[in-house]
Amino acid sequence: MTTVADVIAALESAYPPRLAADWDAVGLVCGDPADEVRSVLIAVDPVAATVDEAVESGAQLLVTHHPLLLRGVHGVGADTPKGALVHRLVRAGAALFTAHTNADSADPGVSDALAAALGLTVEGPLQPAPEPPLDKIVTFVPVGPAITAVHEALAAAGAGQIGDYSHCSFATAGTGQFKPLPGANPTIGEIGQLERVAETKLEMVLPRHRRDAVVAALRAAHPYEEPAFDLLELAPIPSSRGLGRIGALPEPEPLSVFTERVAAALPATAWGVRAAGDPDLLVQRVAVCGGAGDSALSAAVAAGVDVYVTADLRHHPAAEHVLAHPSGPALVDVAHWASEWPWCEQAADVVRAATGGSVDVRVSTLRTDPWTLGRTRPS
Question: Is 340 known to sit in a ligand binding site?
Fold first, then answer.
């Protein structure tokens, strides 16, 4: 039996919650993790139409990109629009799960799906996110059983975790030297006497947020009254995660043709696809950012791409960009919902792979873009 918790575990492995922005609200919104899942629906938006689709199709889990309850609430009464959706899901025995900015920054994530839809070969993130910051603790333990005790205590506190491995460390032999002064209570040696002790130098990495816990564990487990240790901040390590992606087309093509490519690759919306730039500009290197991406406009300029594809570009930043960069990169602006919809199939593949085909996984094709009409004045 596949449970809600099983599907969530697969999705959170692909889109780790720690990648979410601190203002975001991701994870299980409603539902029982222990409930069985036979059918999953994946959509961009948790709106009435997709909730109805999930309930009427018999799905036990609705997975969306956008949060339902992004801002704090004091209640989910059924007499409010969002509360009514929660009640409808709960009554139907359907859970709701959200992967938002964690899916934006994951590798692969939302922008990888957009890049793939446009036929790009991805080179890397547009705005790389460094790996979580690490420290290294180096301590010196007298040879004997204390080495194992200290090592186990540090590991239990969070040190020595590298990828899928725990208890990672490096040990070297050496000689420690100290002289206990009046007032000391030495484990080894006598007051006023210089001591030289065979010791093991033990080195382990740790997440920076576990620093206090690891130091406390060292002090508690080390046999010395005053254990010697070094605590070092390691340099940031670049990663393949982050917002947006940079990629390349197989062959250069004019901006006018590329704009048609974008329109053909994404679902139709009233917003459509619009471009700013010379229609004859040759395009090959492309930056993309699913969702609202004008905050990454300067990163696209710095990357030296030919065109930047994103959603929700504002008038003034776009106008200022065109004025400052007449030779490019050009801009292609698409509807927010359309830019993120390709991610749904990516998330569906994550669930299918984790459940081995035992769960029916579908992607909603309902257009939930809020803009429903678009008109252009006849020329």
Answer: yes
